[in-house]
Design brief:
Elements lengths: L6 H11 L6 H13 L3 H14 L1 E2 L6 E2 L5 H4 L7 E5 L2 H9 L6 E4 L17 H13 L6 E4 L5 H17 L4 E4 L15 H9 L2 E2 L11
Parallel strand pairs: 3-4, 3-5, 5-6
Antiparallel strand pairs: 1-2, 6-7
The protein binds zinc ion.
Length: 215
C-alpha cells in the first residue's frame, strides 16, 4: 500500500505551486511549514486584510491601500516624465537607484504570445488611458521611458510599446534605458549603479519634431 496525500493538503500544495519561484518541493515544504507551525490562521487573517484593502493605484497601476499611491501623490516628482516598468519590483529597484524623479506606470509583466499574454493582458490599455487623460487635462507627458528588461520578451514589449506610442502620440519623446544593462538580466536584480547609469544614459527610440529637452 502506498501513502496517499490528503486531497486538501494536495490542493494547498498545488495552489502554492502556482506562485512563481516555488517548485513542487518548495511548495510542499511551505505547506508543511504553515500547518506544523500553526501559521494558517495568521496567514488567513492577513490574506483577508490584503484582499479587502489593497487595490490598484488608478494612476500607475501599482498596489496600494490608499486612494492614490505614495509615488503618484508625491508632488515633488516631475508630472511630465513617465517611466513604464514591467513590475512593482522593477519600479522599486529604479526608485532605489535615485535616478528617476518622474512618474511610473507599472505593467503586469511582459508580452508573451506563447502564453497568450497580449497587450491588454499586461495592462497597456491602462497606460494609454493614463496618457490620454493627462493630455485631456492639459498636462500631457513630454517623455515616456520604456524601461523594460533587455530580454527577448522585454524587447518584444518595448518594440510593441514604442510603435504604439509613436502611432498615437507622434510628438511624444520616447526613450529606452541605455544598453549598459547586462543582457538577459532582469531589472529587479540589477545593481543600483548599473541601473542609475542606464537611466541617465537612456536613448531616444523615436525621433519626432518636438524635442523638449534638447538644445
Ligand atoms: Zn500610483
Amino acid at each position: 500500500m502506498t501513502i496517499r496525500l490528503s486531497p486538501l493538503l494536495g490542493e494547498l500544495i498545488a495552489e502554492l505551486e502556482r506562485i512563481p519561484g516555488l517548485g513542487p518541493r518548495s511548495a510542499q515544504r511551505a505547506a508543511m511549514h504553515l500547518l506544523r507551525e500553526g501559521r494558517v490562521p495568521a496567514l488567513r487573517a492577513l490574506l483577508d486584510k490584503v484582499d479587502a484593502n489593497l487595490h490598484r493605484c488608478p494612476l500607475c497601476n501599482t498596489f496600494t491601500e490608499k486612494e492614490i499611491c505614495d509615488v503618484c501623490a508625491d508632488e515633488t516628482r516631475s508630472p511630465v516624465h513617465l517611466c513604464v516598468v514591467e513590475s512593482v519590483g522593477d519600479q522599486m529597484a529604479l526608485d532605489a537607484s535615485l535616478s528617476w524623479g518622474g512618474q511610473y506606470y507599472v505593467l503586469d509583466g511582459r508580452l508573451n504570445p506563447i502564453e497568450g499574454r497580449g497587450p491588454e493582458a499586461i495592462g497597456m490599455g491602462g497606460l494609454f488611458e493614463r496618457l490620454r487623460k493627462a493630455e485631456a487635462d492639459g498636462k500631457a507627458f513630454q517623455e515616456v521611458v520604456v524601461a523594460t528588461s533587455y530580454t527577448p520578451e522585454g524587447d518584444a514589449t518595448a518594440y510593441y510599446l514604442i510603435e504604439a506610442l509613436g502611432r498615437r502620440w507622434p510628438s511624444l519623446h520616447v526613450t529606452r534605458l541605455a544598453r549598459g544593462l547586462p543582457s538577459g538580466l532582469e531589472i529587479e536584480y540589477t545593481d543600483l549603479n548599473t541601473l542609475a547609469n542606464a537611466v541617465y544614459g537612456r536613448r531616444r527610440v523615436l525621433r519626432n519634431d518636438k524635442t523638449p529637452d534638447e538644445s
